[in-house]
Amino acid sequence: MSRTTMMIDTGLPTGLFTDVIASHGELVGLVKFGWGTALVTRELHRKIAVLREAGIGFYFGGTLFEWYLVQDRVDDYLALVERTGATHVEVSNGTIPLDQQGKAEWVRRMSRYRPVLAEVGYKDAERSARLSPADWAGAIREDLDAGAELVITETRESGRSGMATPDGHLRDDVLRAVLARIDAGRLLFEAPTKDLQVELIRALGPDVNLGNIAPADLVGVETLRRGLRGDTLLQLTPVAVPA
Amino acid sequence: MSRTTMMIDTGLPTGLFTDVIASHGELVGLVKFGWGTALVTRELHRKIAVLREAGIGFYFGGTLFEWYLVQDRVDDYLALVERTGATHVEVSNGTIPLDQQGKAEWVRRMSRYRPVLAEVGYKDAERSARLSPADWAGAIREDLDAGAELVITETRESGRSGMATPDGHLRDDVLRAVLARIDAGRLLFEAPTKDLQVELIRALGPDVNLGNIAPADLVGVETLRRGLRGDTLLQLTPVAVPA
Amino acid sequence: MSRTTMMIDTGLPTGLFTDVIASHGELVGLVKFGWGTALVTRELHRKIAVLREAGIGFYFGGTLFEWYLVQDRVDDYLALVERTGATHVEVSNGTIPLDQQGKAEWVRRMSRYRPVLAEVGYKDAERSARLSPADWAGAIREDLDAGAELVITETRESGRSGMATPDGHLRDDVLRAVLARIDAGRLLFEAPTKDLQVELIRALGPDVNLGNIAPADLVGVETLRRGLRGDTLLQLTPVAVPA
Question: What domain of life is recorded for the organism (chains A, B, C) (predicted)?
Answer without folding.
Answer: Bacteria
